[in-house]
Each structure stands twice: as C-alpha cells, then as structure tokens.
C-alpha cells in the first residue's frame, strides 16, 4: 500500500500584473478604456496579440509593437467596433520588454495609446491562453470576455471524476520502504521543455516540464488522479510501482478541493498546515512549512529528506479560490536521490516558477 508523499503545485496566474495605467490622450469622447496586456504587465505566457478597447467605436487604428531594440514585432490590426486587436509575430519571446504605440480615429477625433509589457523569463508558450485585461466589469457593449478570448481553449490533461479515483483503502503509503537502487542517476540540466496543462479543481493550470521529459497519468496510485513527470514512461511506471526504488528525478502533481478533504479525515475548513501534517510521510524528515507565494497565490513550501529511500526533495501545497467558497489545492513535488537533489532542485524551481493559470473561454 502506498500513499503519495505530497507536494502541491499552485495555479500560477497567467495574468499580467497591472503596474500602472495605459496612457491615452483623446479629443472629444474618444479615449482608451482598457487593454490586454495591461500597462506595465509582467506576463507568464507569451501573448499572440495585444487587444485594446476604446470608449467609442473607432474607424481605424494604426501603430506598432516594438521590442527593446526597436524592432517591430506586430502585424495586422483588426478593428471590431470599439475593440482593436494587434497581431504579434513569432519574434515575441520570453525575457523581453515591449512597447505598444497606437493611434485610433473616428468621427470625434483621435486617441493615442502608449503602453508597455514584459514577457517574463519563465513564460511558457500556451497559444490559447487568455491575457488578463483591466476592463471594468460593467463596461457597456461587447465585453472583453465576449470578444477577446481565443476560439479554442487549452484542453487540460486527462481529468477524473470522483468515481474514477481510488478509495482510501486502495491507496498506498508514500515512497515504499525498500532500499533504493545504488545505480547512479543523471542530473537533469536546468532547462524546460514542452508545456503541460492540468486540472486543479475548477482551475486549469499550465507549466513547463523539464526538457524531453514525459507526463503519465495514474488514477489508482493515490486518492485522486496523479500526474508523474519523468525522463521516460518506464521511469514513471517504476516510480508508481515502487517509489523508494527509483532514485531518478521525478515530479508528482495532483489536485483536490476543500470538499475532498474528508477523504483525508479532515474538515473542509482545514488549514494548509493541517493538510500537510496529515499527508506527510511519517518516516520523512521535513522542514518547517514556509509560507511563500507561487505566481501570486499563497502556498506552503516544505523540504524533506528520507533516509529509508535515500531521497530528498521539495513540495508546494498551493491554494487558490474556486467557486462557491470551495478552495482548490494543487500539489507539486520534486524528488531524487539525496546526493543529486541540490542540482535537480534548480530544474524543479524552474517548473514551479513557470506555473500559470490558463483562463477558460
């Protein structure tokens, strides 16, 4: 019997954080109302376009988006009533700053718009992710939610209904007590690869896997579906069969909600500390839970060492708001042979830092 030794991945928001307000200068009634990205936003995803909304319908919009070197990275501009969409090219990349300069005109005059945004160094490529805007909820006419979302949303990885999850009697204790194999494992270089999307309660989250790694879903390893990210499918399968005997670098991700906590013998209002105390493996030596922020969301971080398995690692238990006062929990854990964890922890931190929330359509 095994029970997964948790770590929780938080839904990091794929939202630009507003650091200021777009500058707009208008004649008569025409002015900028809001935008996506917002001015001075730092984005966790690489955007496909810039969308701006004006206070009135516009006849035309002209301008460009340029990078820090002054190179134009924008293409066609499409106008639909009060909304203008500026297409971005593949030249928009992570770890770069961009400036938007636009001029809109209609019968009442013109308005010029100047705003900036930065694509973070750990930003991931999620073509269907929506970029957050700063539009008022009572904005008249077509709202951003009705006009700016992509035609297709990112489909999450396989999800499981409560009927598909294992019962507590079927679950097993974390990392088995067998002695670890003494074969050396390769330390993963600190690079990230393909994006992965997963359900976390009512939220969809995205993250970058380590380069060349694969993800495998398992519905009978823990109380709730678990995704194992490993160098190959064989390693993932071996970990699920006998976790203590797999010294390789492995990431485990699972999610649940406050409504599911009774499966752990907890009340729905249990704290993150309560959850950790219940789920942590008794024969592990954990650090004190550290309150941290993962992409803007509250999380608890715990480091651990287990002499039985000869492995060390870290896990994050992240909580974020769901619907109808239900809290969503996402748990992400990275581990490997203890003598290799320090190097692998660099890669794991890149994965955690790259977590974003994928906004639904």
Tags for this entry?
single chain; 361 residues; mainly beta; Immunoglobulin-like; Protein Transport Mog1p, Chain A; eight-stranded antiparallel sheet; five-stranded mixed sheet; 4 helices; elongated; disordered N terminus
Task: Give a brief outline of the structure.
The protein has two domains: 23-131, Sandwich (Immunoglobulin-like); 162-358, Protein Transport Mog1p, Chain A. The protein starts with 22 loop residues before the first strand and ends with a strand. The protein is mainly beta and 361 residues long.
Give a topology summary.
Elements: E1 23-26, E2 32-36, E3 41-45, E4 49-54, E5 60-67, E6 74-80, E7 83-88, E8 96-106, E9 109-124, H1 144-147, E10 192-200, E11 203-210, E12 214-218, E13 226-230, H2 233-241, E14 250-257, H3 272-279, E15 285-286, E16 290-294, E17 297-306, E18 311-321, E19 327-337, H4 338-353, E20 356-358
